[in-house]
Design goal:
The protein is an alpha/beta fold. The termini are far apart. It binds NADP nicotinamide-adenine-dinucleotide phosphate. The site of NADP nicotinamide-adenine-dinucleotide phosphate (NAP) has 27 residues, from helix 1.
């Protein structure tokens, strides 16, 4: 009775991209605490090893890969064991007004936020590396649903990956593989540090019903829910995790 936990990840193997920082790091650590074996990947080796050293339990794997590099994506798939869960979390932002956008900026952001997840899902499926009963989770953003000046590339990339998630849910359902997205509001990570002044942060937090930004754990627990068997009948869903930001 004491071990009863429908949200446990005991015995599951989970691949997390963007595990060298922020939401991905915390997700990997929390997954390991719930009994999962982790395959963590990120671009910077030192930061990835920091995450690796914080994982609970044994048998975890770390693979350095730059998701803007097709050869690295292939190597990541080749080195990855068969997995139960896949967290597509690595992401890149851009803050530029539409008039100042350049093709290479658009390419860079879309490469990491959209094309890499699409390639990874395809290649993992082709190599039968996602088990039946598996779960794919995409870290999207509430930016997929609203916008602000200078966010056009980022918001459109998150809308694209959210739509792609729904296609995964439809196509992979017959294989008993689920696909869902989490849509966080602003979370305190290196991704958002120092982008606006303290005064503007205080004003922005007022837009949140809970009057604060998120912590990586707030998002990690939503991802874990989607990975766990407790979400066995949930697919194609966008789970907003935003402290009530979308209410305003
Ligand atoms: N923080 C927020 O407010 C917020 C809100 C909504 C959604 N999100 C989304 O949440 C996800 C995680 O963001 P975060 O806040 O945790 O940011 P973060 O702390 O900056 O982490 C971003 C992660 O993505 C990885 N990454 C970026 N470019 C990469 C590339 N070319 N190849 C491989 N890995 C790459 C980074 O790896 P390295 O550090 O090793 O380069 C890092 O591990 C992103 O998809 C982001 O869009 C964040």
């Amino acid at each position: 009775m004491t071990n009863y936990n429908p949200f446990s990840l005991d015995g599951k193997t989970i691949l997390v991209t963007g595990a060298s920082s922020g939401i991905g790091r915390t997700t990997a650590i929390e997954c390991s605490r719930l009994g999962a074996h982790l395959v963590i990947t990120g671009r910077h080796a030192e930061n990835l090893t920091q995450t690796y050293n914080l994982l609970d339990g044994k048998g975890h794997v770390q693979i350095v890969a730059d998701l803007s590099c097709p050869a690295d994506i292939e190597r990541l798939v080749a080195l990855s064991p068969v997995i139960d869960g896949f967290v597509n979390n690595a992401g890149q932002g851009d803050f530029r007004l539409i008039d100042y956008l350049k093709q290479d900026i658009i390419n860079d952001v879309y490469q990491v936020n959209v094309f890499a997840p699409m390639k990874l899902v395809k290649q993992l499926l082709r190599k039968n590396k996602i088990l039946s009963g598996g779960s794919i989770v995409f870290t999207s953003s509430i930016s997929a649903l609203l916008s602000a000046p200078a966010l056009s590339v980022y918001t459109s990339s998150k809308a694209a990956i959210t739509a792609y998630m729904r296609s995964c849910a439809v196509e992979l359902g017959p294989r008993k593989i689920r696909a869902n997205a989490v849509l966080p509001g602003t979370v305190e990570t290196p991704f958002t540090s120092n982008t606006i002044s303290e005064d503007d942060v205080a004003k922005d937090k007022e837009l949140y019903a809970l009057k604060r930004y998120g912590k990586p754990e707030d998002v990690a627990y939503g991802i874990i829910y989607m990975l766990s068997d407790a979400a066995a009948w949930i697919t194609g869903t966008s789970l907003v995790i935003d402290g009530g930001r979308l209410l305003k």
